[in-house]
Amino acid sequence: MTTGGQKRLIVLGAGESGLGAALLGKQQGWDVFVSDGGAIKDNYKDAMHHAGIEFEEGRHTEEKILNAQCLVKSPGIPDKAPIVKKVHEAGIEVCSEIEFGFRYKGDSKIIAITGSNGKSTTTKMTFHLLKEAGYDVSMVGNIGISFAKQIAEQPTEWYVMEVSSFQLDDIHRFRPDVAVLLNITPDHLDRYDYKLDNYIASKFRITENQTGNDFFILNQDDPVINKYMLNMISAHSLHAKTIYFTMNNEQKLPENEGGMIHDDEMTINYGGEELKMSIHDLSLQGKHNQYNTMAAGISARIAGIRREKIRESFATFEGLEHRLEFVATVRGVDFINDSKATNVNSVWFALESMKKPTVLILGGQDKGNDYNELMELVKDKVKAIVCMGVDNAPIHNAFKGVVPAIIDTASADEAVKAAFSVSEKGDVVLLSPACASFDLFKNYEDRGKQFKEAVKGL
Question: 325-456, what's its fold?
Fold first, then answer.
């Protein structure tokens, strides 16, 4: 029950975002109760005990939940969950942690980045550009700590935020000053009634509350984005200033502002000033990273960072662990850890950037993957496929007769040894699974770490 006229906040799910919302709610004077249907990590329990926050684990007690003014839901809990249905039926406001945090952010600025692939790299790169320029900035959302926890414990003037479609599903007023949409390919369709249009609409919610004073940066080369943008423009539902990035020489950037790559040179135009840089001077290689770099560079220019500082920071940026991460060269064979590639489109980008004959390690918990889009790159670049999963039948069905060898393994150690056995000096072994990791590993980080350990053991 509410106490002493306090508003009651219920937090469903005691992960990183749930803990952050609970801490911020407590700080802002809410009567907070946290409920998790599973087990809560000890360090999160300790933090809630320390803050005086009541919680339960292993159950959802309805009488403690259905008397709230607001419920913050973990991004991992679908609307179809029975307790969430009852919350909606009771007329209780449901919001995401980024929405709850937004209400207490004060005058700070937000750069929010979404897309099916490249979110984490672009978020980290944008944060790096602002940090190197001396800004008071934090990196929050799906990377770093939760937005709400950052506001509660160490608020900053700028927030660079990785945002998923799940987080955007439960926003109401959330409005980034700069929103970035990198690309859209089919992913998580089980959460969207297996309708791509629902997933697309979820991604575009990042701009729905933006005004004419805000910026929406998006990929002009993405056909899904372009099609949806035409619908938004015709419906007059787009209010932010749009700025595009492209690699298509035929495209003309509106008002000559945005990002472009032509003849191995990246150009970013903003505010009447032009930043030019050879793509060979960028610390991250590969076509997909060039798109990410343009998006980050435009964001940094909007934030007021000088061209020289951006150029300097691009050259020093270090990529993410588990995203096209070079591990080692063993007897002339390079090993690359791309465990974060949990969908087919990510693998496409990884293969596209390979310059040597490749042994590809695929597999895991298949999300109904269509491997056809990889077919040309596999024919052109892949000499063998090593399957690493409980059920490797979909991979065999897709690539039988396309590559000379398909080998089944059931652990990272087996996969690395099998890949090494079919490799020659000058080859590359690429772990880029196209699947979730939960059949054999705790998560993609665990998969990547086990892969790296196995490589070191060769």
Answer: Protein-Tyrosine Phosphatase; Chain A (3.90.190)
115 is in an annotated binding site: yes
Task: Report whether 353 belongs to an annotated binding site.
Answer: no
Choosing among 3.90.550.10, 3.40.50.150, 3.40.1190.10, 3.30.565.10, the CATH entry for 100-316 is 3.40.1190.10
- Laid out side by side, the sheet with 137-141 consists of 137-141, 158-162, 109-114, 178-181, 215-219, 241-246, 258-262, 265-270, 273-278
Is 185 annotated to bind ligand?
no
Closest CA to 77 of 65, 63, 64, 91: 65
401 is in an annotated binding site: no
Distances (CA, A) of 215 to 106, 112, 157, 269, 296: 19, 11, 18, 14, 13
Class of domain 8-95: alpha beta
Q: Is 106 annotated as a binding residue?
A: no
pTM of the entire predicted model: 0.81
For 392-432, the pLDDT digits (tens) are: 999 999 999 999 999 999 999 999 999 999 999 999 999 99
pLDDT confidence of residue 3: 47
Whether the CB-CB separation of 308 and 274 falls below 8 Å is answered with: no
Domain ranges of the chain: 8-95, 100-316, 325-456
